[in-house]
Amino acid sequence: MNKKGNPFFWQDFISVGQLSFPKIKYIFSLADRMSAAVENGQARRDLKNKTVAILFYQPSTRTFSSFLSAALWLGCRRVIAIPGMQAYSSAVKGESLADTIRSIEQTTATNIIILRHPQDSSSEIAAANARVPIINAGSGKKEHPTQALLDLYTIQRELGQLKKLRVAMVGDLKYGRTVKSLAQLLTLADPQVHIDLVAPAALQMPDNLVMRLRRQGAQVKKYAKIEDVITKADVLYMTRIQREWFEKEGQMGLYNRLKGFYVLNRPLMRKAKKKMIVMHPLPRVNEIAPEVDRDPRAAYFRQMRSGLYIRMALLAAALTPSPLAS
Ligand code: ASP
């Protein structure tokens, strides 16, 4: 670890593959500090003299607003936040991502770039072309590392442990990037974790990832129905069937057959353990009935707040040598 034990200082954060359990714990302790500051209404000053650029090429509610808010809670006054890059940047004129990244770095003198982009390799391309750190805020169908950290942090906060858990992931495990990143983090927290993958065959998690998880020691099983896993799950992680990818791949017929395949409702929740949580990266479409929202085990709204704390922690860690000292 460099700079007083902060392994994130001046580093890109583009993949969960860069993490280890000690690094995760480091971010979690920082996130606890951030949570205390926000709950007490006390903004910090970690990013007082810094500039942050947030470039989003895909729609976003939570990731965009929480990164923006995280920068402001850290005392950053120069935030260049551009949602809709796909429509408003020179990408429309055919500019490459590499050139756009270089341009934003030059024109804003930013200290960090937070990027969301539909291409799987977008963060790697950005990192290869920027001198400042890149944070991956969602890349294609492949990775969503900051979401995975906030998901794991939510599990820790809600259940008080990360070991001996049975985590069921439900829905679109083929296109969904959050489940892919989270599954990998779960094995770092507990190599023997049980992961139950619930999806129609056409939307199962890619085989190479399932094999990698199994090689790392995870007990991974595949199922077709929520009923098959609901009684045993400690975490039920619901996801949306991701219409935009079916559209892109000319598969709308398949989408229309699969949408509405899974709906978590009150009768199903009656079968679940008393101590379990329901999570969802959101947005939901129809896969969690609103009647579940009132169930105390519905953790998906609380999960979003973890996103603010984790993103504050990541920004402070990337831009200050010893954030735990302040
Ligand atoms: N918000 C999450 C993502 O950006 C999940 C989703 O879009 O369904 O991947």
Provide a quick synopsis of the model.
By secondary structure, the chain is of the alpha/beta class. It has helices at 21-39, 62-73, 85-88, 97-108, 122-129, 145-159, 177-189, 207-215, 243-248, 252-258, 266-271, 300-319; strands at residues 51-56, 78-82, 112-117, 134-139, 166-170, 194-198, 219-223, 235-238, 277-279. The protein is 40% helix and 14% strand.
Topology:
Elements: H1 21-39, E1 51-56, H2 62-73, E2 78-82, H3 85-88, H4 97-108, E3 112-117, H5 122-129, E4 134-139, H6 145-159, E5 166-170, H7 177-189, E6 194-198, H8 207-215, E7 219-223, E8 235-238, H9 243-248, H10 252-258, H11 266-271, E9 277-279, H12 300-319
Parallel strand pairs: 1-2, 1-3, 3-4, 5-6, 5-8, 6-7, 8-9
Helix pairs in contact: 1-12, 2-12, 4-5, 6-7, 6-12
The structure holds aspartic acid (ASP).
Structure description:
The protein is of the alpha/beta class and 326 residues long. The chain folds into 2 domains: 16-143 and 307-325, Aspartate/ornithine carbamoyltransferase (Rossmann fold, 3-Layer(aba) Sandwich), CATH 3.40.50.1370; 145-304, Aspartate/ornithine carbamoyltransferase (Rossmann fold), CATH 3.40.50. Helices cover 40% and strands 14% of the residues. It is built from 12 helices and 9 strands. It has a 5-stranded parallel beta sheet with strand order 7-6-5-8-9. The protein has a 4-stranded parallel beta sheet with strand order 2-1-3-4, with helices on both faces. Strand 3 (112-117), helix 5 (122-129) and strand 4 form a beta-alpha-beta unit. Helix 2 packs across helix 12 (300-319), helix 4 (97-108) packs across helix 5 (122-129) and helix 6 (145-159) packs across helix 12 (300-319). Aspartic acid is lined by residues 138, 144, 177-178, 240, 242, 281.
